[in-house]
Each structure stands twice: as structure tokens, then as C-alpha cells.
Amino acid sequence: MEYQTQPSNHDDSSGNPMADDDSCEPNPTVLDLTSYQLHDLDSVDFPLSLTELDFTANRLSKLDPRIGHLSNLKKLSLRQNLFDDAGLEPISKWEAISGLEELVLRDNQLKKIPVVSIFKRLLVFDVSYNEILSMNGLSKVANTLKELYVSKNEVTKMEEIDHFHELQILELGSNRLRVMENLQNLTFLQELWLGQNRIRSVNLCGLKFIKKISLQSNRLTTMTGFEECVALEELYLSHNGIVTMEGLSTLVNLHVLDVASNKLTAINDIENLTQLEDLWLNDNQITSLEGIAEAVAGSKAKLTTIYLEHNPCANSPNYATTLRQIFPNIQQVDSQVFG
User: Fold this and answer.
1) Residues 212/189, Cβ–Cβ less than 8 Å
2) pLDDT value of residue 9
3) How do residues 185-240 score in pLDDT, each as one tens digit?
4) d(CA 148, CA 164)
């Protein structure tokens, strides 16, 4: 079967790549079989030099045991296949590939976190878009992990993540979470994605270095809880029930603020956010543009994008012209882009 490969670069003693020598066949390091609609891998060769395997968008439901002998393997993607818990089970015993660093199991039929304790250097673990009911099993995942994706499952509780001291990205969007918890040890966390859950209040457990937070489409009624996140650069809070803009004055590094589709009647507490570039306020209940220049005083020159459509104030005469006069470097008002 034909497949895409990339050669590894081996040098001879003279410093010239051995691939230039016609007598040496370059060893493939990447096998990409994306979208081949394979039901099995019987017709596929697995050179021992492989470091990356990508089987995205096939019809696989069982693991080929030959994969377990690829001792150089660093990345394995089984995304968008038909693996259930039983079909994936053999991987937990494959000692030869224990050096794996990236394991992508996204979009399959898993009902629980698979046993992956054998991988002591795992950096990326993705089990999003499955049918997982609980985060039980994550406690056995290596503490080397830097990125964890468990979005679009049926998870109800944030648990078994305390030991991920190196974690930088945590994605738990589209689950059934009600409470933010067990984040206090994730001191290196840079991104936290919790959109489309059932969270009513913010509890960031003292995460002072986080840069991106999404709590879109939850059940928040207040913005309080972000005050200590002074490194925050992007904050997404659209589609909640927030009534007042508050607790934002300390977020002086904020570049993007999205509070669209809430219940806001005025713009408050952002006058000293000097780095703000994108401000999304559409679909609220803001009645007037009066005072907006003062409300966004700190970022008046920096702001390039503002959304205010579907507010009463957007019906005022010369609405876009007024905003362009207030913000000299504005490039976009709602969907209207200026050259």
C-alpha cells in the first residue's frame, strides 16, 4: 500500500547526509494514512524507524500488534475511528513503545479513560469526543503531561488532575461540569477551556500565570473570580447571565475580552486595560454610547475590533461613525471591516 513518509536525517562521518548516497535507502519516520477508510492494517508495512503514526479518519476498531514493536514511536493518532474500550486495551501492555509522547484518541467510542500508565514521558493526551463518563484513570497518567483534552464527553467532575504540575493546556469544554475544582497544583497552566458546561461560579484556585480562559455558555451571573489572574490575555465569557462588568481592573494584560450575549446594561471596570485590542459586547442590553470613550479610556488607541450589534445603542444614528471617531485605530465595527 502507498503511504506518505518522511526520511530521517542520518549523517556519515564526512558530515554529508547518508540519504545522498544511492546505496543507502532513507528510513521513513512518518506514516500518514489519514482518510484511507481502512478497516484493518493487514496491507500496511511498519518500518521500525517510524516515529509518527497517523490513522485519522479510518474505520479501525482493533490495534495491530506490530505497532507495539515500534520502539522509536513518539506520536500515535487514532483520531476518528471506531475504537471502544476493549479494542484499545492491548496498548497498555506494549512496553516497546513506552517512550510515546503524544497519544490522540479523539472521536472514538471510549466510555472510560484508557490505561496509559506505561507511557512515562507522555506530553499530549487527547480523549475528546468520546462517551467518557468520568475522569477516573487520569491519576495513572504520567505527570510529564503538558496538554490534556477531554472535551465533548459526559464528565461531571474535575478530578485526578492534581499531579499534572507541568500541565499547560486543559480542555474540558462540552461536558456536564458544575464546579471548578482541583486546579491549585496546576501552577504552570496557560490555557483553561471550560465552555459549554453548567458552571455557576469562578474558582481558579490561585492560578496567577494563566493566559487564556474560556467559560462561554455556562451559568455565570457574575464576573468575579478573575482578579488574581494578572497575566490573563484572553477571556471568553459569552452566553452566560452576567449582569455587571466587574473584577476586571487588575487584568492589565488582557488583549481579548468577550462578554457577548449576556445581560449587561453598561460598560464598566475596563478603563485601565491598556492592552485591550478586541472587545465583544454584542447581544447585550447596553442602551447608549454615551460615556463609552471614558469606559474604554486606557485602550482607546489600542482597540482594533469592537462588537456592539444587537444592543439598543447600535440603533443610534451614525453609530459606526461615532465609534470610529472615538477609537482612532479601529479596524472593525461588528461585521464591518475598514480598509
Assistant:
1) no
2) 37
3) 999 999 999 999 999 999 998 898 999 999 999 999 999 999 999 999 999 999 99
4) 10
CA distances, 336 to each of 174, 285, 320 (Å): 31, 21, 9
Residues 31, 53 contacting (CB under 8 angstroms): yes
Cα separation of 299 and 310, whole Å?
23
Cβ contact 297:324 at 8 Å? no
What residue has cell string 476518528?
80
CATH number of 1-102: 3.80.10
For 19, the grid coordinates are 540519504
- From CA 328, how far away is CA 22, in angstroms rounded? 62
Helix locations, the chain, DSSP H: 85-88, 292-295, 319-326
DSSP for residue 144: T
Same CATH fold, 245-339 and 1-102? yes
Which residue has 447596553 as its cell numbers? 286
**Residues 286-320: tens digit of each pLDDT:** 999 999 999 999 999 999 999 999 999 999 888 99
The hierarchical CATH code for the domain 245-339 is 3.80.10.10
